[in-house]
Amino acid sequence: MTMIRKVQYLAVAAAAAVSGFAGAARADDAPAFTYSFNIGAVSDYMFRGFSQRDDKPALQGGADIGYGIFYAGVWASNVDENFVATNTEIDLYAGIKPVLGPVTFDFGVIYYGYPSQASAIATNFISGAVVDVDYFELKAGASFSPFTNATLGTNFYYSPDYSYETGASYTIEGNASYTLPVIGVFTPTISGVVGYQTVDEVFAFENAAAAPAITDPRFFDDIIYWNAGLSLAVEKITFDMRYWGSNRDVDVPGVTSTDDRFVFGVKVALP
C-alpha cells in the first residue's frame, strides 16, 4: 500500500467520523484546548500479546492535544530491529470522543509508522512479494462507569491491510478497571484487557539480519491475548505491574515472542 493511498484512507475516515458523530456533543459544552506530554520506560513493550522488543526494555513517550470532543497525538517507542528492521516505532492518531448519556464513544484512526525501515525486510508468506511494515487502523470504542470508580469498555480495530501487507485485520478488546481507596500517597488501580485478533494472511522473514522463516504452526493461529495488573499513581508518576498472556505461547529468539510474562513500567505525565 502506497503512502498516498494511506493518507487518502485517513482523510476519508476522519471526515466520516466527524460528519457522523460530531453532532453527539452537547451544545452547552464550551470547547477547551488541552495538551499533555508523557515519558516512561517498560521492561518489555507488549502489543496484543507480542513482544515488540524481543524481551528487552523500551523507552516510550508521547504528546496529546484536545479540543472539545476532538483529540490527536503522537507516541513513540523503541522496537526490536530484528522484527521491523528499524529500532523506532512512531504512531500518529486522531479522533473524536462524543458522549451520549453515560456512554463515552471513541472513533478514531491510528497510523503505525516505522521510519528508516529496510526496503526489503520481509516477504508475504503467500504472495512472496516484498512488503511494507507501516499500516493504519480504524478504531471504534465505547466505555461507561457501572458504579463509582469502575470503568468497563470495548474497542474494535480494523485495518484493510495489516503490517507486512498481510491483508485485513480485525481486533476486538474488552477492558475493565477499578480504582481502589488511596493508600498513603498512592492511588491504586486494578485493570485488565482481553483481546482477539485475526489477520487474513501470514508472513515469513527473509532478510538475513532478521531471522529464518517462522515455522511453528501456533504462530499462524488467531491470537487471544490478555493482561491484568496493578498501577500505583502518585502525583504525576504512575508505576505499573502487569502480567501478559496469550494462547500462542511461542518464543522465536531474535524474531518474536508471545509467551507469558510480567511487565513493569513507569510513566511521568506533564505538565
Secondary-structure topology with pairs:
Layout: H1 3-21, E1 33-42, E2 46-47, E3 50-51, E4 58-67, E5 70-78, H2 81-84, E6 88-96, E7 99-100, E8 103-113, E9 122-124, E10 135-144, E11 150-159, E12 169-179, E13 187-199, E14 203-205, E15 223-234, E16 237-246, E17 251-252, E18 256-257, E19 261-270
Antiparallel strand pairs: 1-4, 1-19, 2-3, 4-5, 5-6, 6-8, 7-8, 8-10, 9-14, 10-11, 11-12, 12-13, 13-15, 15-16, 16-19, 17-18
Characterization of the model:
With about 270 residues, this protein is mainly β. It has one domain. It contains 2 helices and 19 strands. The chain has helices spanning about 5-20, 80-85, and strands at about 35-40, 45, 50, 60-65, 70-80, 90-95, 100, 105-115, 120-125, 135-145, 150-160, 170-180, 185-200, 205, 225-235, 235-245, 250, 255, 260-270. Strand 7 and strand 8 form a beta hairpin. Residues about 1-25 and about 205-215 have low confidence and may be disordered.
Any descriptors?
271 residues; mainly beta; twelve-stranded antiparallel beta barrel; two-stranded antiparallel sheet
Find the structural class using helix and strand composition.
mainly beta
Write the element-wise H/E pattern from the N-terminal end onward. Answer: HEEEEEHEEEEEEEEEEEEEE
Please state roughly what percent of the residues sit in beta strands, choosing from under 5%, 5-15%, 15-25%, 25-35%, 35-45% or over 45%. over 45%
Helix amount = under 10%
What is the gist of this entry?
The protein has 271 residues and is mostly beta strands.
